[in-house]
Design goal:
Layout lengths: L1 H12 L7 E13 L5 E13 L2 E11 L5 E10 L2 E10 L8 E12 L2 E8 L3 E2 L8 E8 L3 E3 L3 E2 L6 E2 L1
Antiparallel strand pairs: 1-2, 1-9, 1-10, 2-3, 3-4, 4-5, 5-6, 6-7, 6-8, 7-9, 11-12
Length: 162
Protein backbone atom coordinates (compact mmCIF):
# COMPACT_ATOMS: atom_id res chain seq x y z
CA UNK A 1 0.00 0.00 0.00
CA UNK A 2 2.92 2.37 0.60
CA UNK A 3 3.83 2.12 -3.08
CA UNK A 4 0.39 3.23 -4.22
CA UNK A 5 0.68 6.33 -2.08
CA UNK A 6 3.98 7.15 -3.81
CA UNK A 7 2.76 6.48 -7.36
CA UNK A 8 -0.27 8.76 -7.25
CA UNK A 9 1.63 11.91 -6.19
CA UNK A 10 4.36 11.16 -8.79
CA UNK A 11 1.73 10.83 -11.52
CA UNK A 12 0.23 14.20 -10.69
CA UNK A 13 3.68 15.79 -10.51
CA UNK A 14 4.39 14.98 -14.19
CA UNK A 15 3.24 17.97 -16.25
CA UNK A 16 1.72 17.79 -19.70
CA UNK A 17 4.21 18.90 -22.31
CA UNK A 18 3.50 21.38 -25.07
CA UNK A 19 4.78 18.85 -27.63
CA UNK A 20 1.86 16.49 -26.96
CA UNK A 21 -0.17 16.80 -30.14
CA UNK A 22 -3.26 15.43 -31.79
CA UNK A 23 -2.49 14.28 -35.31
CA UNK A 24 -4.84 13.03 -38.03
CA UNK A 25 -2.97 10.82 -40.50
CA UNK A 26 -4.81 9.94 -43.75
CA UNK A 27 -3.35 8.10 -46.69
CA UNK A 28 -3.78 5.55 -49.50
CA UNK A 29 -2.87 1.91 -48.91
CA UNK A 30 -2.07 -1.22 -50.91
CA UNK A 31 -2.37 -4.67 -49.38
CA UNK A 32 -1.73 -8.28 -50.28
CA UNK A 33 -3.78 -10.75 -48.31
CA UNK A 34 -2.88 -14.39 -48.69
CA UNK A 35 -6.58 -15.35 -48.66
CA UNK A 36 -7.35 -13.06 -51.62
CA UNK A 37 -6.31 -13.47 -55.26
CA UNK A 38 -5.39 -9.89 -56.07
CA UNK A 39 -3.96 -6.78 -54.47
CA UNK A 40 -6.26 -4.63 -52.36
CA UNK A 41 -6.30 -0.85 -52.45
CA UNK A 42 -8.01 1.72 -50.30
CA UNK A 43 -7.52 4.31 -47.59
CA UNK A 44 -6.55 4.42 -43.94
CA UNK A 45 -7.16 7.27 -41.52
CA UNK A 46 -5.47 7.27 -38.13
CA UNK A 47 -5.71 9.67 -35.22
CA UNK A 48 -2.89 9.76 -32.70
CA UNK A 49 -2.38 11.68 -29.48
CA UNK A 50 1.09 11.95 -27.99
CA UNK A 51 4.56 13.39 -28.24
CA UNK A 52 7.64 12.74 -30.29
CA UNK A 53 8.35 9.42 -28.63
CA UNK A 54 4.99 7.87 -29.44
CA UNK A 55 1.30 8.04 -28.84
CA UNK A 56 -2.03 6.26 -28.73
CA UNK A 57 -5.05 6.57 -30.95
CA UNK A 58 -7.33 4.83 -33.37
CA UNK A 59 -7.47 3.79 -37.01
CA UNK A 60 -10.00 2.94 -39.69
CA UNK A 61 -9.34 1.18 -42.99
CA UNK A 62 -11.52 0.72 -46.09
CA UNK A 63 -10.28 -1.42 -48.97
CA UNK A 64 -11.43 -2.87 -52.27
CA UNK A 65 -10.16 -6.46 -52.46
CA UNK A 66 -11.87 -7.50 -55.73
CA UNK A 67 -14.82 -6.50 -57.89
CA UNK A 68 -17.24 -7.55 -55.17
CA UNK A 69 -15.24 -7.93 -51.95
CA UNK A 70 -14.50 -5.08 -49.54
CA UNK A 71 -12.57 -5.03 -46.26
CA UNK A 72 -13.27 -2.64 -43.39
CA UNK A 73 -11.35 -2.43 -40.12
CA UNK A 74 -11.61 -0.23 -37.04
CA UNK A 75 -9.51 -0.25 -33.89
CA UNK A 76 -6.92 1.21 -31.55
CA UNK A 77 -3.20 1.69 -32.06
CA UNK A 78 -0.11 2.71 -30.14
CA UNK A 79 3.39 3.49 -31.29
CA UNK A 80 5.68 5.84 -33.13
CA UNK A 81 8.21 4.56 -35.67
CA UNK A 82 7.10 1.04 -34.74
CA UNK A 83 3.63 0.32 -33.45
CA UNK A 84 0.82 -2.12 -32.78
CA UNK A 85 -2.82 -2.03 -33.73
CA UNK A 86 -5.79 -4.12 -32.60
CA UNK A 87 -9.38 -3.96 -33.74
CA UNK A 88 -12.12 -5.70 -35.70
CA UNK A 89 -12.27 -6.37 -39.45
CA UNK A 90 -15.13 -7.30 -41.77
CA UNK A 91 -14.69 -8.74 -45.28
CA UNK A 92 -17.80 -8.60 -47.46
CA UNK A 93 -19.24 -11.42 -49.56
CA UNK A 94 -17.54 -12.14 -52.88
CA UNK A 95 -17.78 -14.27 -56.02
CA UNK A 96 -16.69 -17.48 -54.33
CA UNK A 97 -16.72 -16.81 -50.60
CA UNK A 98 -19.04 -15.61 -47.87
CA UNK A 99 -18.79 -12.55 -45.62
CA UNK A 100 -16.65 -13.01 -42.51
CA UNK A 101 -15.31 -10.94 -39.62
CA UNK A 102 -12.88 -11.23 -36.76
CA UNK A 103 -10.15 -9.64 -34.66
CA UNK A 104 -7.53 -7.61 -36.55
CA UNK A 105 -3.99 -7.50 -35.13
CA UNK A 106 -1.17 -5.59 -36.76
CA UNK A 107 2.45 -4.58 -36.43
CA UNK A 108 3.68 -1.58 -38.42
CA UNK A 109 6.78 0.47 -39.01
CA UNK A 110 7.03 3.93 -40.53
CA UNK A 111 9.77 6.17 -41.86
CA UNK A 112 8.67 9.64 -42.91
CA UNK A 113 5.44 9.25 -44.88
CA UNK A 114 6.10 5.60 -45.84
CA UNK A 115 4.48 2.89 -43.75
CA UNK A 116 4.74 -0.90 -43.96
CA UNK A 117 2.82 -3.34 -41.85
CA UNK A 118 1.92 -6.96 -41.24
CA UNK A 119 -1.63 -7.77 -40.26
CA UNK A 120 -3.40 -10.84 -39.05
CA UNK A 121 -7.16 -11.25 -39.09
CA UNK A 122 -8.69 -14.25 -37.35
CA UNK A 123 -12.07 -15.15 -38.88
CA UNK A 124 -14.45 -16.03 -36.06
CA UNK A 125 -17.87 -15.34 -37.60
CA UNK A 126 -19.46 -15.59 -41.03
CA UNK A 127 -22.77 -16.07 -42.83
CA UNK A 128 -22.20 -19.57 -44.23
CA UNK A 129 -20.48 -21.30 -41.31
CA UNK A 130 -17.36 -22.22 -43.32
CA UNK A 131 -14.64 -20.04 -41.82
CA UNK A 132 -11.49 -19.46 -43.85
CA UNK A 133 -8.13 -19.86 -42.16
CA UNK A 134 -5.99 -17.12 -40.65
CA UNK A 135 -5.80 -14.11 -42.95
CA UNK A 136 -2.21 -12.85 -43.10
CA UNK A 137 -1.42 -9.74 -45.11
CA UNK A 138 1.25 -7.20 -45.95
CA UNK A 139 0.25 -3.51 -46.14
CA UNK A 140 2.04 -0.55 -47.72
CA UNK A 141 0.77 3.00 -47.26
CA UNK A 142 1.78 6.62 -47.64
CA UNK A 143 0.52 8.86 -44.84
CA UNK A 144 0.50 12.61 -44.48
CA UNK A 145 0.36 13.69 -40.80
CA UNK A 146 -1.90 16.70 -40.19
CA UNK A 147 -1.31 18.18 -36.75
CA UNK A 148 -4.22 19.84 -34.99
CA UNK A 149 -3.61 22.78 -32.67
CA UNK A 150 -3.61 21.90 -28.99
CA UNK A 151 -6.84 22.78 -27.29
CA UNK A 152 -6.39 23.27 -23.57
CA UNK A 153 -8.96 22.00 -21.11
CA UNK A 154 -8.46 23.98 -17.90
CA UNK A 155 -8.49 21.89 -14.76
CA UNK A 156 -7.41 22.37 -11.18
CA UNK A 157 -3.95 21.18 -12.21
CA UNK A 158 -4.05 22.78 -15.69
CA UNK A 159 -2.58 19.65 -17.25
CA UNK A 160 -4.95 18.23 -19.86
CA UNK A 161 -4.67 18.99 -23.58
CA UNK A 162 -6.48 17.66 -26.64
Amino acid sequence: MRYAVLVVPLFWAVPCHADELTTIIPGPLLSKSFLEKGVGYGVEVSMMYGGRMGGVGGFTQAEILSKQRRRFALGAQAGSFVGLEAGWAVVTEGEDSSRWSGPHLGLYGSVGVANMGLRFTIPVENDAGDLPGLDFGVVFSLKLPLTLPNLEFPTAHDRFYL
